[in-house]
Every structure is written in structure tokens, then in C-alpha cells.
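Dear all,

This email documents one entry for the complex benchmark we are building for the journal club exercise. For each entry we list the sequence lines for every component of the assembly. Then comes the predicted three-dimensional structure of the complex as a C-alpha cell string, followed by one or two observations. Please use this as the template for your own entries, and keep the labels exactly as they appear.
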Amino acid sequence: MAARVRAKTRLQEALEKDALFVDEALAAEQEEIEKTILTPQKVPKGDPLAFCARLWSVCTKQPFDPEYTTENPEFLEFLNHKGSDTPRITPLFDIDYYSDQLSWQNAPINYYLHYCQGALDVELQPHVLFDSDYVLSQSGLSAFDCPPLLYFLEQNNPKLSPHPLFEPELYSAAVGDDFLNGELPICAFIERWAEKNAPFSSYFSRRFYSLHEPVVRYGGFNPLVHFLSAPAERRRDPNPMFHRGWYASTLAADDIGLEEPLIHYIRHGLPKGLMPNPFAHTELHAASLGLPALVEALRRYLSFPVELTAG
Amino acid sequence: MVSVCFVTNELYPLKPGGIGRLMYNFAIDNLEAPTPADLHYLLPADARGEADAIRDAYTGLATVHFCSDELSSLGEFGQYLRQLGESGDPDVPRSSNLDEHFLKSLKYYSGLLAAQATAGFDFDIIEFPDFGGWAVAAQAAKKAGLAFKNSVISVRLHSTFGLITLAERYYHRPSLWLSAIWDMERISLQDADLVVGHLESIADYNARAYRFPQTWRSRVITEFPPITIDEPTGGSVRMAARRPAQDFVFSSRLQPFKRPDTFIRAAVRMLRDDPACPSLFHVASYGWDQTYIQWLESLVPVDLRLRIRFHPTLTQDERAQLLRRSIVVIPSIYESLCLFAYESAMVGSKVILNRECAAFGSGPRWQDGVNCLMFDGNYVHLAEVMKNALTWTASGLVDATPDVPYWESHETAAAIASTAVAEPSRLAVLCYGFSTLAEVNRQLLRVADRPVGRSSVDPTYHAIVPRALLKEASGAARLPVVAGFQLHPIDSWEVTADDIDAVLGQMTAEVVAFSPVDMLVDPIFIETAWKALDADPALAAVTSHTLMTGDDLDTTPLKARLYAGGLLTAAAATTRVCHRASIFRRDAIKRVGLLMDGGDRWYEDLCARMVDTGCRFLCLPAAPVREKAVRPHSRISDELYFSTRANDLGLQLELPYPLGSLSHTLPGDFRMGDAPIPEIRPYRTVGVKSWPHANFARSEITSSKGTDRDRYRDIKVRVGDLRIKNRGWDSVQFKLAVFNNLPEISLREQSDIIFDSWPPSRSDQWGHLVEYCPRVQEGKGQTIAEALLELSLEDRSRLGSLVRALPTIVKAAEPIKGIDQGAWVHAAEALREHWERDGWE
Amino acid sequence: MENQITFGADRDVSVAHEDPAFDGVLHIFDSHWHGIRSATGCLPGRKLGISHKKHLDGGELRHIEGLIYKWGIHTICYQGYSNTADELVGIIHESLGSEIRQFCITHVTATQFENHFEMHMLGKMAARLRENKLRRLGSVKPGFSSVCPVFWGGTIVNLPPVLKRSVKPLRSLDTVLIPLENSWRKNLYTNVLAADAVPEVARILLVNQPSFLDEVSQSMKLRIIGFQTPSVLLGYMASSALVMNVTLAECQPMSQLEALAVGTPCLTGPLGLRGFSDHPLGRLTEVAVLDNPGEIAPKIATLMRLWQSDPKELAEMIADFKEKRTAAGIASYREFLDI
């Protein structure tokens, strides 16, 4: 716990001063952890090292005693792999994606451990399809209670969504249990998407998106990954009725920041009855009676049943 | 976890005021509650400017929401409301325009919908303050089943504007605007699921003032709220002053019902009776009405201005220090609780209270001579009590232990909801107003196209058609029914009250929906209103707002028109009670009766008399009805209509007239009655709003370039007639000009100077400087020292630096023509002495 | 607001026939061309209004693309043609490819070529056909392929509007409604003079003023009701015994079909629509000589007398006509659009 608290304080201090110091703070903590590893000892529950061990354990399915993490040779071996050499133990941690978000490359770090050190503070995501904030909002936890990815994997709940644009139940129903074979829907989606081009979101139309993204249409590109990986200004609309540019520059202009407009709309705009395009108001006869009916109408308006039912 | 959303326009620490502090106390208290509630606050859109600061202050305590001026949660209606809010209704003069009130209420309703959407669930409890009747739209939405089905809407007794104005007679210019607030406040209190008060005496006071029945009074729950003070203390604190206080402070807001004048007059009397009295008297507060404040200042004789001081801009710390070393005087004639009194007692100050105020004199908590001192309401007695207070010591504690808040054991909305009505009533739709066969047919086609219905009941349709039209149609004169329409022939082109009455008499339906030919009604409205009438037997009619179109009802609407429902003000002085396609309980119409006297205004006449006789109306916060913008011409002029209405109400005046002032003459439920009656008070109420010198300055601006609208332009003003309420150093030039008797001054563009009127006698609360300033003795208006001192006192931190900077300022002022260097030296001396003596730092 | 594209507006869908086979069909019409708009409003399928007065902007094109996708549109049918429509044909072909089948229907007659715009548009349609961006060109004027051979040989048949519940209106049996503009082609004066000559007609309702007619005829029967919105005009049609639309050149007037929808017969010129001109109602209501009131008046008198003598027969005739017309209309569209 002590180390955790230190890290938090240092991170906060660093954030207050200048983003550049964040890296230094993390690196310093990394050193301390290295020392811990060298001298076997009990690791407190809330320590990044303990989090990392749990993450490693849940991914590799190897049981361990969190208090004696540092005595587990396989885990220590795992920790020894650093930087681009960090092994891939879960599809939900994309080493390349993660390292691209880091501004320094000097000190080699085990990225999982780095993530457990509180990377959420600096808004680092383990995977483009993993939205920490969204996961936390469903959990009732704060980032300091538990790293969101660890929470997600430990829950092992096939209905828990890691991203506003991925609906596990929709995807599971479309691909079937045999295909999943006990795997989390998101993991199957990342690993084996191409085997079954199945619907994964009631707001993201694969076919509409691929109309203007031939790479997606013909290649083996996962459309959601393709969409989220593209620079925001070059992204194409993935929902036929949602005009991203219009929404971001009008209704949501005040508070959208750098958030993806479609995600902002699903999470904030839609529940408030905001319109997804400049024509919707007329087309929906945007009822003067009651928000609930309007929200329901908007959901129907944004859906594309042909594609969803066809699978 | 129970969720509670407070609607408020004040929130500590961002705005001063008791309600805001109370809201904060709830949040703090909630932290330690055995089962903490999920607290939310909804603030108006204009508070968005401070959103970040507010949210920071409430991190971990509560979620703060803001209304939006977009009103997007009201759909299309919201769009038109926004227009209305921006431009107003040019057809109606502002003084008699009630839209502003409804808009405010609709904005909070829209804000609540959005807040619920953001939160992702319905609030269990939504609490409104009683002020302004803001709850009305949300309450109507709940009654109509449009929203808040799972919420209890409660109203907390703080102070309605109605009660405040009762306590401030002759201060408020009576207006429809004012009367409408009274009406809305009454309705919001009457319709609340739950009314929450802090003191039994105040609940009684409200019940009496509004003449609410015993059933209302029994619905009021009273609970003592948590009181927190910035220094940790227990629930009850002995009133032991740390050192004997000898100064007195008045620190309530400068408003007539807080009675700062009583304090000032008592102070003057005390000082006159005992010139050796060592006490200083502080008026440490602010207000909005500058004229009133100037009048208060003028109550202090010049020679006592060193002793009776005004501090309009103290920081919170400074105010707290002042309060702790002084005896606190609260002469208010009305308070619903007065947190300030409890806070003061809890930090150990002596407190002097007005016995006439129901929150103090009637309650069990304050005991004269034990935990406070009380005076009889007049300043002569206050002066005596203040004198006694110097030597008095409290012997008891004031009990401020909070009760468990009602939401911790709240009744659910389901428990409060009345038992559902088993059988749906029968509905009849009554169409009339036809002048061509084509109109009849169009109505037939329309009804065929979009019929109204509820699961098991279909309405019957009736049409009153001039016989001439039926004759025109082949064989129709013999037809009782066409296409499901029961035809009722009449022999004139104009539909009269008797015609309607006759048709109503033939109906068996309990509920009747009017559908005149020049209105376009969404069937959803009829269905919603029908259900609402079935759900609440006390309702007589349901109406809504409308959208107005040109001659063609099918075209895009032009703007929204707001209707009032059962507000007496609206019924007496406007024609906006119910639109003509509203839905009524048939027996309610029968009871009031349709009168032929009403002529072609029979409908307005009916609605107005229904309001007079206490019928309850529901006005949906939506606009599912369209009507033509131009109202049908009537043979009864507005003037005749309103004067007859006045006669009906027994009013010896011409309508539209502000009814709010007629508390003792209005009939029935609508009187604001049994509040303290002014005549029996041993003293006169005071307060002046229109002061002969107000607006004086504006007329004296000599340059045509300068109007009060664009005061930021380069303007020339006559110096001698103006005073400046300044905010910055820009005004120094102006003050120098005053000092040096320059006849005119040119102010630069973008100056932050704001003009105000020059008071009839000098308002130098800094009178103690007079002796140092020879110019003042010559009667030349403000002196340089005053000007600088005033500047620095607005921002106390500047005083020290100002004194240090004086030599530089003097140098800078040299080029200005006619500067008297000697006066600068005097000014500098005066300031320095003042600074050292008072030691503000 | 007016210039915006409108999808599924109330007035364009409320009187439409329903046929699931047309779910993937999108009719694109011009919001300002009222006759074509009314005709389109009766068709099964989805409706999109555009404007010839304004080019489509990026947001509108994006929305059209979204609508096509969302509603699973596979067939687009342009009702009338304009530069805006022409532009849209190209854009849709380019962005969505030939999977979206595009067709066009013209609503003009050769008589109207006096307005050169019509020929420019026919030229553009033919060019798009050559480019294979439009698959087929159709017309509601029988035998239009004799005017432009590139047109489909069949005739598109307009459908009457649908009223959700049949209403028996209150009808004034001595009233005639003439909802015609005062133009050369519309033949207003002849219609008025014909109605005026029939003693059974007591009232003639006019939307437009027959200027200076009073210098020729002193009729006391004329009432000017002025321009009316479609819903009000339908009320007037329902309350009249007869609607008159005897114009000099016509394809398939919607006034006739709207009048029939509310049970009112409508006098027209010869429409040449196979199966309908020789229908008993067609024989009663089609006038051969158009510019002679004396030839038209007897037709009016016959109908007025039929109202008195056997209204039931007239009603049955109208119902049968509507039924056949609907069937023929749907069949013609299915054939034309290959669905």
C-alpha cells in the first residue's frame, strides 16, 4: 500500500508540475519495485507489483499467492521481459499500442507492470478496444482501487463490455457459444474476428463503414479497430444516421473535447435526447411529449436491423 | 441508496445566502449519515460560468447538474421556448407578461429531465424551494404521467416571494408579474407530494397565509436541518462570548423585511441616549437595490457616521471576524428558520432577535434571556435591549440538533400516489366552429385518420354544425350520425354557450374534449389529458401550451404560446387560462355553468369563472396543440371583458390590474390572507423603491454619443451631477475631476465605470475624513481622499499598497489641469491615519 | 427549413398504399412540384423530397447515403427530373455502385415542351441511361415512347390516395369544385362556363379568379375559395358533387384521384389510359371536346342527375374504378422496377 500511495502522490505532483516529469516519477518507482523484487518479501495487496502479479496470474491461468509474488520464479521471469520484449499474455493488452502512447523509450519497462503503476492517471489504455473510463463507470470502482484491465479480466463476465462500441451479448449471440468456447467475447473478437464477420455493436454498421473504407471491405481488417485507430479527423461515419462531424461541431461542441463523437453521443447525447444529425428532428417528429419516448425513438432511428438480423 | 435532487439557484460557497448554505450542510451531514443518500443539485443555466468551481467544491459530496438554455430535452417545444425566452412575446407588454415565470419553471423541468438522463436513473426525491413556484412544470409533468413517475416531488418552505412581499408592503410595485409568482407559489405548495418545513410555527404561518386546509397542514413534515459552522463545534454550544463584545452587527441581506432600518434607528437612538457609549454599529451586508441602500445610509446622521458603519464588500473571513467580536442583531420580521441566527449562537455570539418574527418568537428553540435576547419589533425597544445586551450573559444553549432528514425514511412515489382509478371514464370529443361543409368534412377525415382511443374505451364524436350547412348537404339535415359523428344542428352560424350546454346535456361521457375547427390537436394530448383526469378526481380540466401557426395549421409553427392553467392572475387579467382545445370534466362545467352573457367569449368566460370558484387545472408542460396566431375577432372588447371580470371578482378597479396587491379583497382560495396584518403593528413598514433622484444621472449625460446603453463609448459627462460606483483604477481620473471641479470629463472607451445617481445628501460613510478635507467643507462633493478610500475599501487588500503608492499617484496626476497638490497631501495623511488606526490588516 | 431534404414527411406517407415488396424502393421527388409530390405520396415505398432550387450540400448527401443504407434501399425511382436529381444520380452511382438500381419517371407531355426546361431534362435522363447510371426511363403519359424512343414502352399508372377509414362525407349535391389555375393549358374559363350552363349546379367553387369573365357572363354561382392546402382542398372535394379538371393536355391528373378517394367523380379530358377510359366511370367523366362548354355541360348534367337518381351506383362505380386503378398502378410499378 505504501508504494501505491507514494506512486499516486508522485504522479499527482508530477502531473501538476509538468507532464514530462510523469515519466521520471514512474521510472523512479520502477526502480523501487526492482529493489523489492531483489529482496523477497510480502507484497501488500494494493501494491502495483501485486496488481501485476494478479494480472499475470489471471492471464496465464497460474494460481499464485499474492503475498508471495516475489518468490514466484515464473512471474519474476515474466517481469524480466521489458520494453518491446514484454510478452503478450492477453489479447487485451496490445504492447505496440501501449508503447506508442508512451513518450519516452529510454528506460526499458515491463509494460504490464507499468500499466499497474497507475497508468490510468495519464490516460494510457492497454488496447484500442479497452476504454478504462467506460469499464470503471460500470464497476463503481476508481482507478486506484484496481487497474481497470485487471478488474475486467478477473470478473471474467461475458456480459461486461470493455468499450462503448462493443456489445458482448450482441456479438456472443451472433457467433454462438461454440465459437467462443469459453473465451471472453472481446478476446475472441480481437483474436479471431475474421473467422466470423459478426455484428458487435448496434451503433456500428460494418457494411456502412466499409462502403468508404475498401481496406475494411476487402482486407482482413477488424472494422472497429480500424475505426478507432484512425486519426479522429480521418475517421468515417460508422453509423448511417449519425453525423459525427455535425454532432461534434454543434450539439456537443462545448464538452466533447477529444472524445470520439459517436462514443460521446452514445454515452451522453442520446440519453439527453440530442439529435444525431440535422434532419433527425423533423424526421422523428421529435416529440414534444417526454424524453423517454424520444430516446426510444432515437435508438430505433440509429439501428440498422437489416444488418443485425442478417448476422 | 436513495437519490435526492435539490433544485436551487444558490449553492455555498459560490454564492452567499442561507439556502445555499443549507444545501451545503445537507451534503456535509450526508457524509456521516448511517445510510448516505446519493445527492444531486440542479442549478440554473446562468450558474454554468462557475461550473468548475462548484463541481470542485462538491467533489465526493454530491453531483452538480446545470440547466441548459437549449431546453433540448423538451424536443420541438424546447426550440420554440428558447425563442420565446430570447425575444419574448412582442404581442404582450412585459409588465403583464406571465411567460417569464412559466419559462423559468419549464427550464427547471427540462434541466431535471436532462439530469436524470445524465444520472441514468430517476431520482427518488426531487426537492424544490418554494420560491417562485418553480416546481409547477415538473409537478404537472408528473401528474400527467409525462415524467417523474417514480419520484416524490417535495417543496421546502424557505420563504415564498409571496410571504416576503407580505412582509414588505408598499415596497413592491404591484404588477401582474408579481401576482403570477404568488399564484405559482401557491400551486406548487398545494400540489407538492410532500412539503418540508423547518419549524412548526412557520408551517402554521404558511398554512394561514395561503389559507390552505387542514389536510395540507397535516402533509407538512417539519425537521430541523443540520447546521454546520466552519469551526468545529458540537450540536449545542454554550453562548459564552470569548471576550465581552461591545459592538453590534447587522449582517442579514439589505432587504426591507430583514429590517436593517430598525437596527440603524435603534443604533442612532442608543448613541443619542448615551453619547459615551463605546459601541460601534456595523451594517455588514449587501443588497441589490442601490436606492434602498442609499436611503438606509441616509438614516445615519452625519456626526454618527464614524460609529454606524456600512461594510458592503467584506470577504467571508472579514465578516466572520466581525461577527465573532460583535453582538448579532437580527430584526427580520419574517424568516423561515434563519441559519445565521443559529450559526451566530453556535460560535458563541450574543444574539438579539425580533419576537414578532414567527421563526423566533413562536418557536420552542429560542428563549428570551436564556439563549438570546428578544425585542418587540420596534426600534425603541431594540435600543433598550441592545443596551442590556452589553451586560447580559447567556445561561442556556440553543438546541440545534438536526433531525433525521426525511429522505432517509422516505415514502416512495408509489406509496404517495393515490390509488389508481379502476374504470376509465368515457370521453366525448366536441367539434364546432364550422363555416363551410369542407371544414366539416376535413374534420371527419382528420378524425378518421387519427382517432383517439384507450384500450377498452373509444370516445364518441360530436359536431355542432350550422343548419344552413346541413341543408346544403343532401339529406344531411335528417342524418343524426355521419361517419361516427353525432351531428347537432344549430340555427345560427355562431356557436353560443346554450348550444354547447345543450350538447353537453345530451352526452353521457364524463369527460369532454373541445376541438374547435381552428385548432389542431395531437391525439396524444387528448389521451394524456384523459388519463390525467381519471387519475386525479380533484382536477377539473387539463390544458397545455400551444404552438402558433399562420392561417394554415399544417405549416411550420411560428412560436410558442404559454397558457397558465388555474392561476387567478391569468384568469382575471389575461385570456391565457386554457387554450380552446382543452379537456374538461363535464360535471365541472355543469357546476359552474355556461353563461350566454359570455357571448362569443363564452369559453374564456367559462374558464375564468372555473378558476374563480377554485376549480383545479393541470397545464401539461408540452405543446401538443397548434392554434392560429391571430385570435378570432370578438364582439366583446378586451376592455369590456376585463372590466366585467373585475366586477365579477368584486374589484373596484380596471383589469388588467395587478392582483397581487389585493390580498384582502380577493375571493375564495386566492387570498394571501392571514399573514400579520399591517394595521395592528405598532410601527410603520418602510422601504422605498422609487426614489426621486433615481435615474437622475442618465438625463444629465450631455454628449449625444453617450447613452446608458453604450456606456463603454467615449462619452462626456457633467461631473458635478454624477457619482461613480467604480470597480477599478479607471475611475481615478473621474474622481480627480470631481475633486478639481472640472466641468466635464471625457471617459475612454471600454471604461469599466458604471454610473449611478448622486444622492441628495453626500453619502460619505467615510464622514470621519471630512475634517481632514477642506474641499468637503466647502461643499464641493467628493474629495480625493474619499474617492481613493472608497476605491481601496472595495478591495481591502489595496489599502496598504495605495498608501505606499500615493507619492507616485500624485506625480502622475500633476499634468491634470488644476490639481491642488495640497489636497493630495491632505488625502495621503488622511488615508495613512485611517489605515493605522483601524489596522485592517 | 424549406430547402432542406425531407425524408418520410407526414404528407408524403400518410395516404400511401402499403406493399412490403416496395420496402427497398426509395422515391425521390421534388418538394416544390406539387402535382408530382401528390402522386408520389400515394405510392408504396419510401419518400425523399429534394429541391430543384438548390444543390445538395455535403451534409444532405451524407444523409441520403445513410438513409439508403439504413432502410436497405436497393431501388431508387426519381419522380420528375431536375439538375439536382441528375447530380444525385451520378453521386449515388459513384459512391454506392450499381448495386443501387436507379430509375426515372417523367410526368410531362410533349405539349409541355414549350417549356424548354423539360427537354433539357429529358436529354439529361437519356444521357444517364446511356451511361447505365439510370436503368430505365418511364412515363405516366401513355405512349410516351413515341415521343422519346429511349423510354420504356409501358405506361406507369398513378395510384389514388388511401384514406385509413372510409368516411361518408356531408355532400352538397349542387356544388361543383374547379381547383384549376388560370392558365391556357388548364382551361379554367371553359370549365366555369360549362358548369354555369347546367341548371342542376347551384354553386361553383373556384380556387382561382376567372378574371374578366364577368364581362362575358353574369354568373351568380361563382364562389372564390382561394388557394387551399391539400388537406383543406380534400375537405372541399368531399363536400362537392363534382370536381372539374378538363384541361387541354394532361398525363394522369391527381385531382381526379384525390376526388375519387373521397367519393367524388372528376371530369377530365381524354386520358387514353387503357382499361380506364372505357371503364363505366371513365365513359361518364372523360370529355372528348375540350374547348367547348356546350360539349362539357351535358356530361356534368348526367353526373348531377345520377347523384339524384342512383347515388349508390355512382359510389360502386367509383369504388370499382379505384380498385382497378390501384391494381394497375402497383402492377405497372412492379413491372417497370423489376420487383
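Observations: The interface with chain B takes residues 1, 11, 14, 163-173, 175, 225, 229, 231-232, 234-236, 238-239, 262, 307 of chain C (CB under 8 Å). The first strand of chain C starts at residue 6 and ends at 7.
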